[in-house]
Amino acid sequence: VRVPVEVDGRHETLVYMNEPGELAAYEELRAGFTAAVSHELRTPLARLLALLETALLPDSNPEELIEQARLEVEEIRELIDDVLFLSELETGHQVVSLTSTSARPAVDQVVRGLQERSERAGITIVVDTLPDIDVPLRPRMLRVLVQNLAENAIRYAGVGATLRISLREAGSRITLEAADNGIGVPDDDLPRLFERFYRSDRSRASRGTGLGLAIVKHIVTSAGGSVEASRSTGRGLSIRCLFPTP
């Protein structure tokens, strides 16, 4: 049972555990999440420490090392931001769906913002959405959703891949799909892509927090929808977000 309360001007939520074992299950989940965050932070922190120690060597290149250190700090910041955002989603501090949003302007805005990154990664993004479809999400949540889908392809699809973001309405359902023709993921990994911090073996060498698709799933399900991952036609990855019509 969740009860909204206000503490020192902040909106919080009290959660009452009614069934035997609920508290133990919650503590196990919390401990597992804390351990996962600690593990994910340890790697960039270790690299950052190594860079700082290298900078003390006589023949080091300070400018190059500073740039590499900046990238490590940026990865740590991104991880912390994603952890906090996902926590706000799960506790209800971020409202996902109070209204509907015209999808095409939001998608175009995200794609424009990612143009430089996608070009550096060798990824082409194609938008294939009709101009008059509304999605049952707040504008910010729709932008976060599309950005995480696009960033997933930018990081992992591979050089030369094309990402197609499409939106279709059929009957009582709206489908937002992000499909690429990149390297794809093994079939065994598909059911786990939306787990926190999960990365397939092929993506472990790439930078990323491992939370992007978990955020996608939480946004979609909080709006009454569902999300699924499958192979694209031929190869690649397709992520489909299914919403009820507003």
Q: What does the overall shape look like?
A: globular
What characterizes the major β-sheet?
A: 5 strands, mixed
Percent range of helical residues? 40-55%
Q: Strand sequence of the main sheet, in spatial order? A: 4-6-7-9-8
Q: Would you count the extended β strands for me?
A: 9
Assign the CATH superfamily of the largest domain: Histidine kinase-like ATPase, C-terminal domain
| CATH fold topology of the largest domain | Heat Shock Protein 90
Average predicted local confidence, pLDDT: 79
Quaternary status: single chain
Class derived from helix and strand content: alpha+beta
The CATH architecture of the largest domain can be given as 2-Layer Sandwich
Number of domains: 2
Order of helices and strands: EEHHEHHEEHEEHEE
Strand content: 15-25%
Q: Which value, in Å, is the CA radius of gyration?
A: 20 Å
First-last Cα distance: 27 Å
Number of helices: 6
CATH class of the largest domain: Alpha Beta
Poorly predicted segments: none
